[in-house]
Amino acid sequence: xMKKPARRTRPAQKRxxxxxxxxxxxxxxxxxxxxxxxxxxxxxxxxxxxxxPKVNVWVGQFAKRSAxxxxxxxxxxxxxxxxxxxxEPPPLESNGVKLLVSPxxxxxxxxxxxxxATILWLGSGSLxxxxxxxxxxxxxxxxxxxxxxxxxPEWNRxxxxxxxxxxxxxxxxxxxxxQNRTLGTxxxxxxxxxxxxxxxxxxxxxxxxxQPRCAASADACLHLVELRxxxxxxxxxxxxxxxxxxxxxxGDRLPVAGPREFGVVSLLPGGAPAGQGSTRRLPLQQVExxxxxxxxxxxxxxxxxxQRRGSQAIAYGQIGYxxxxxxxxxxxxSWSSLVRRPRWQAVTGDDPPELVVxxxxxxxxxxxxxxxxxxxxxxxxxxxxxxxxxxFASQSLENALFLARNGLWSHARAWMEGYKKxxxxxWTAAAQAQLDLIALHAAATRAQAERDRASxxxxxxxxxxxxxxxxxxxxxxxxxxxGADLRTLIGGDANRWxxxxxxxxxxxxxxxxxxxxxxLVVMLRQGRDEAIAWLQQQNRAPIPKTPxxxxxxxxxxxxxxxxxxxxxxxxxxxxRLIGTATPPGQPPPPATGTRPMALPCQRCxxxxxxxxSR
Length: 614
Fold this sequence. Notes:
The chain is α+β, with helices and mostly antiparallel strands. 35% of the residues lie in helices and 16% in strands. Helix 17 packs across helix 19 (553-563). The N and C termini lie far apart (163 Å).
């Protein structure tokens, strides 16, 4: 008797677990009617011709029994389904034969899968090859892949509109002429290409275009619209100039525009006149080197132009730098000057030197000093030495910077040098830079004060600017004894004199010479009573309410010195009387052919003249 195969045991919980979707498909199939021919041994040729026995097959008994499980949402795994099918005893009429029926598997198409795999591999390889080629040209020459410009930010699209292929100087000039552009005088600079690559020669070429609605000559109407940096690929000839065959490779190109007009005309003496100084941009005409010993390697340049306002010629421009390692042109600061163009000068004594912009107006020296500061990524920037705040907390340094901001450079230098001598351990490099800037201005004011001048008013102004109060007062007294007019001596500098005097008295209230200069200006402008009130304020004393009120001793001393000025009948302050007044009962003066001025208040004028109507 044939033994039944051992049953595979599984936990009841596992048999009741959810089945796969394939088992659910088997259970939902309608049981078909099947005929099966059974032969226990392989058929021989003789037995093949004999009639075949017929066997009835039972199918689908288990599927009906499992319907409640399906309705309850429980799916049986396929293996559990087979085990339970085997355990179900077949009916006697099936002769002990059971058949598991499943739907036929779909027909396989192996050629379609092979085709799809081949297309996938070929497409991936093409994409990898194209990406590698694009990356190569992005590094070597971005102009060859300009179609990528749409996918990058706007500020980075300039690299894709240029072709870095080396070209001859003649071809570059011909292309500029086709675009109605003119190439200006090239400027050659020796720049560093990196820490180990040495130096290279870079040619800065200005691209000029004609200004619209320009009535001047053709050359005067040209203004700079673009700056290009070319790397020299072939050595220069003996003439050290560019020939038509000289090959250049484009490094970078940069659109440029001049500064605003209102920022340039503000340097005029007295500020910008009314109605002048619009927001339009002034044209730039040329690219030029910066005077002095430039930091190494020298990639610095200046774009400059000039604007005339009457007899004044104002130079203006922008300071730029070419970074050869990154092949980038950068414009850093704008400048303007009535005296000279920017220059490199060792102000602090450190390396590299500083960039000095001279913005002197008249006799007032004004220098802006920029230090070269490296930042991350090898980029450099220009940082101005500021005098607004001291580098560390110190009342002495705050007083010194306050004097410097008000033009008292010599006094400010003395204060800072005194603090440095008393506190050498707390002194820093930032404080030294501020002291060097103040010393630069003090040297300029001292040179002006020591220069011989024919005009007494200019000589007096230079002494006040250099804070030589005692010498200025002595010169003023001498000039008045010689018959000079007080208003001519002071001229239009009265406000600056008072400003300097008030700044000096804020730091040192006992400075009687500064009180004398300030009191003289107030008395000249507003009268003796206002001068007394101003002196009392400077001495931290109450303002007198009556003529008999006591005055501060320093106020009395300054008033005595003011009264001793040899004015020779000069009016120290102007009269506020407009027109003439006639006492009551007297006939009017004879007509002179001119219409008398209408007076708004006759009684006020009579009172001012000391006439009381009864």
